[in-house]
Amino acid sequence: MIPQQKRETTSITNPFNAPVYYYARTDSTLQTARECLAEGCPDGTFIYAGYQTEGRGRTADRQWLSPAEENLLGTLILRQPASTDFTLRIGLAASLTLDSFLPSGVRTAVKWPNDIFINGKKAAGILCESAGGCVLAGVGINLLQTAFLRSIEHTATSLAMIIGADKCPTFEVFIPALLTHIQECLSCRDWNEEISRRLWKRGSIVRFMRGQQENDIIEGILTGIAPDGALCITEEDKERRYYSGELLC
Predict the structure, then answer these.
(1) Which residues form the BPL/LPL catalytic domain (predicted)?
(2) Are residues 27 and 88 located together in one domain of the fold?
């Protein structure tokens, strides 16, 4: 366990009217958020770190590696019950935030259930977990990073690689924009229509792995996102909805 020293970042506006805490180094902001939750932090508290040693993706075998102080590594604490659409609502907010800094003609795409792409490459990931009747919304967004591990250098990108590091927003600018979009997306009634418009591979024939079984793969036309967050795929003229699994291509 890494000794953690937090400081409240008063220069960052939080539309949830809750603290924003910065950690120079931590295991993961999700774990730190669990500890803050146990200490009684208010709804809407946001935690971000300069570096985390145990960042991870949607499955336990996937790490989220990031150089120090280059990307946004954060977790938002929401004191409300989890729902099947939470990850996608947070993903939509991340997509809208990135779009606001991209040049005309360049837009993000949301890959169900938790990735954000720019020009076909991953720029952000979302990981939501339940804790004590609350939701911890973890976000990892590539902002300033321009060099990636060889294993992902052809599949990853960042805001800096699109607009240039000198034009990238600071954390003081990006975080309030993200939190504002999250607040709006959590209350938006037609959120699934908006995310369906920016859905990766929508209208295309896709291969989809149901659950965790590598041999359980179907093909169909990706049609959109249901109001409850399910992925809609048309197979043999019948639309089916999936709540778990992975889009392969």
Answers:
(1) 5-190
(2) yes
- Note whether 187 and 213 are same-domain residues: no
Cα-only R_g, the chain: 18
Per-run averaged pLDDT (10 residues), the chain, 249 residues: 68 96 93 94 97 68 73 97 94 98 96 96 96 95 93 94 96 98 96 96 95 82 96 94 91
pLDDT, residue 181, reads: 98
Q: Say if residue 227 is in the same domain as residue 181.
A: no
Tell me the C-alpha distance between 241 and 232, whole Å.
5
Mutual angle of helices 171-187 and 86-99, in 10-degree steps:
130
Task: Please report, in angstroms and rounded to a whole number, the separation of the first and last CA atoms in the chain.
Answer: 38
In eight-state DSSP terms, residue 166 is G
For residues 74 and 138, the answer to whether their CB atoms sit within 8 Å is yes
Instruction: List the helix and strand counts (H, then E) for the chain.
Output: 5, 13
Prior bond to 169 cis, omega within 30?
Answer: no
The three-state DSSP-derived secondary structure of 228-243 is: CCCEEEEECCEEEEEC
Please calculate the CA angle 75-31-123 and round it to the nearest 5 degrees.
Answer: 40
**And the tokens for 141?**
């967004």
Tell me the C-alpha distance between 190 and 222, whole Å: 19
Token pair 């991870």 is found at 56
pLDDT at position 63 is 60
